[in-house]
Amino acid sequence: MDTITIKDIARALNISTSTVSRALRDSYEINPETKRLVIEYAERLNYHPNSIALSLKENRSRVIGVIVPQIANNFFSQAIDGIEAIAYKRGYHVIIFQSQESYEREVLTVQQAVARKADGLLISLASGTLDVAYLRDLQEKKLPIVLFDRVSKDLDTPSVTADNFAGAFAATEHLIQTGRRRIAHLTILPHISITQERLAGYRAALEQYGLRYDENLVRYAGLGQYEVEPLVDDLLEQSPDAFFSASDRLAIGCLAALKKRNVAIPETVSLIGFTNITVADLLAPPMSTVEQPAFEIGQVAVDQLISLIEGKQKMPQPNLIKLPTKLMVRASSQIG
Amino acid sequence: MDTITIKDIARALNISTSTVSRALRDSYEINPETKRLVIEYAERLNYHPNSIALSLKENRSRVIGVIVPQIANNFFSQAIDGIEAIAYKRGYHVIIFQSQESYEREVLTVQQAVARKADGLLISLASGTLDVAYLRDLQEKKLPIVLFDRVSKDLDTPSVTADNFAGAFAATEHLIQTGRRRIAHLTILPHISITQERLAGYRAALEQYGLRYDENLVRYAGLGQYEVEPLVDDLLEQSPDAFFSASDRLAIGCLAALKKRNVAIPETVSLIGFTNITVADLLAPPMSTVEQPAFEIGQVAVDQLISLIEGKQKMPQPNLIKLPTKLMVRASSQIG
DNA sequence: AATCTTCCCGATAACGTTTGCGGGAATAAG
DNA sequence: CTTATTCCCGCAAACGTTATCGGGAAGATT
Question: Which of A48, A61, A281 sits opposite B52 (nearest CB)?
């Protein structure tokens, strides 16, 4: 790729590079006639400033690093969609990294992003991440960071999530109001933020309706692909009349496991998932879900980050933004 | 972000930047003792070379630009997953762009990628793209380009696709072998490569089994969200006994439309889709599909591109690589 | 006529890094 | 003792761009 530079223009027009640069930036101290000449020539040769040279000079890359557990996941690909929409509009590019749910890989990819001189980081923590000290170090070096979805209280930084508490509360309340009493909760790793918030919402709804919280009805699934089925079996022994599962992956796994065991949904157990799957109403049975505004979460998160980067925000307090979820009631939780 | 540079090290150790640079690259003309000093100091301060400065100097960015119609699509997010897996291993970063199926946006994003000095481009064409002349221009300027999935014959460049012909043939053959005779084909915009290949596979299977090709059984869907239903209605008037739909989106739309009209699947019509949806067997009914090896397509495509970039390949001929598809027969195409 | 502005423009340094060239000091060879 | 080698290392240029400074020429003000 041989590209034309400001030098080429200067040589061709027999002027200095400074003049070319200034003409292209429409500086007041350049003769209009000279400007015209330069601009015409530049357009004719399809000149574009070398963004790498600019980055070096300005010590900014106009690149935002996004670290997610995995791309091939409805929620994250929708969030990334939202991120890109805003980022491009505001002159930033987005580089995506996957932690594959591993703490070690997360640290590595974050280092990569930093080495690449990303102007800021947008992170959804891997479920393997217990310690965010390495992020605190970066933050102290003035690297703008915004967390989304999987956040951590141990980091003083803006965060953007769905209102997991309210979503879980609404789901549980809905199950109770449709007559369910023994509501099992299948959730993910206990230490990550969304797990705790969703569990809290679940408990709060139980309490409000005078139901006892029974920890035998709660199971934490790890990352393994084959962990869901045994957990469902476990829970079935408690003879629940409803399943509320706390993630995309678990909701699907739960549905598959229940069908495999010929458990009638919703006759024997109701099912409701916390998921952004787009074909929920084509499933058998159509699955009730709590939908997260993934696209908007991405948009808001990147907006926060750009504000940080561009220093518009004096950071009065770390914003903890919660976006409303949406309860979608379908056949899997309706009797009759 | 204040980062440490080679200059800082030079100053601290009272040597020149050249010496530091050479010491870090383990040059033979540096005193082992000096090397040790430099390397130790660099590690202690967690020095990392500024990749932007390197890019400027070496006139390469180690960035690969990926342009896809949209990220939030199972096939593409899986393909991107494959792309990243290989790219990172080989020292490249990936910047993702979305054309949103629009030709204009595709041209813009490609320009962006070029302006960003991507070392090469990995493109899946927007369905709005009829003319690839703008890519030919870039190619003539020695920019490495590899097409995947949505390719074009008008560009002499390596391409990686699923074996769409064989996949469509297998799907159609399966429908015929299960007794279907009037097989409707719902496909996408007529001019893009995968449409033609899949249509050809469909026709070839019909012919091989002595069935007449009837263009009244074929419909082309545009991009509109609400186009599928009327087309399904259209096709139903031809009283088909099977639907073969040629894309992710259409397969889902088709299933939804048929269910809405209470058309019994597979009793009245069989249904088979060309799609990578991961929950196909949880749908009602479980949907038969032709699966594309999306992850592998991404891997192979980026491998081809990196070969081009690094000049390992003298380009004897533009490789047209086809990866096998997989027919997954489920209830939507099985009677009884 | 001397000074002051105003208008344009060029030379240069800087961002962080690598590399070709040159050169001083020590050692080896004559 | 002189010359040739070897071993280390520094200087400076280069990648493409912008910003600071400075300055020449022309016109405007005393």
Answer: A61
